[in-house]
Amino acid sequence: MSVLPGSIIVSHWHRFPDSKEFFSRILHKKRRRKFGLLEAPMMPPHMNVDTIRYKVFISGKTGVGKSALAARLAGLDFPRMHYETTGIETTVTFWPVKLKDSERVLFFRFEFWDCGESAMRRFDHMLPSCKEQVDAMLFLFSFTDRGSFEDLSNQISRITESSDRVVKLVVGTKFDLFMHTDVTESDVTRFKEVWGLPVFRVGGDVSAGLGEVAPLLNALAEDLWHQDCIAASSVSIATAALSQTDTEIIV
């Protein structure tokens, strides 16, 4: 499930003057603040902003850049040398958005879960722990690793079920290493036609700016908020129908 980009939240809001006070809460000296599991941005009394919490699982083969993506989205530094995650790592990211219709501002708290492929194969409880109460999944492949792209379909089928109410997005990493690309644009187009999932591209270099992470974080926020609105609407309809039935019985 994916909605049209910019249909629910204001696109590129981080560039607008009225966003500065909100984004300043996740910045320190023009760089992103690091938040632990129990930490949150300090909000002054006049800023009445709701925080919406979501759990996001990052899935992909070893070496595609799962930990690097989590660090990138949180604005953190990460080692240039690759090492496989030995267990489960969690990274917290706060991201403010402005809704188009109501102009309401929300703070999204994304908790990214990343698990090493070897650990997942070795310990049976790893994948169920990552999937428990998960709200969204990011499926990664590397533009420099053809095998990781060809494994996408198997990866999505293995981890998710058709009944899952989970937002799914695909991310291609190392996009800026075009001299070594093993995945073409036509490959990506065919994948999107078959699976109906959006594909985002991230490079290997990291800057301190918000612009490089805004498209993916905004897409996550938009799809998750849309999913929750649909769920809330379904509950309201079901409650109304039940109330109507009770009234008819009483009459």
UniProtKB/TrEMBL annotation:
Q: Does the keyword Phosphoprotein apply?
A: no
The superkingdom of the source organism is Eukaryota
* Membrane spanning stretches: none
Example of a GO MF term: GTPase activity
**Which cellular compartments is it found in?**
Cytoplasm, Cytoskeleton, Cilium basal body
InterPro entries the record matches:
P-loop_NTPase (IPR027417), RSG1 (IPR039677), Small_GTPase (IPR001806)
What SUPFAM superfamilies has UniProt attached to this entry? P-loop containing nucleoside triphosphate hydrolases (SSF52540)
Write down the species. Answer: Triplophysa tibetana
Primary location group: cytoplasm
Q: What is this protein called?
A: Ciliogenesis and planar polarity effector 2
Keywords of the record: Cell projection, Cilium, Cilium biogenesis/degradation, Cytoplasm, Cytoskeleton, Exocytosis, GTP-binding, Nucleotide-binding, Protein transport, Transport
Which family is this protein grouped under? Answer: Belongs to the small GTPase superfamily. Rab family.
Q: Which GO terms describe its biological process?
A: cell projection organization; exocytosis; protein transport
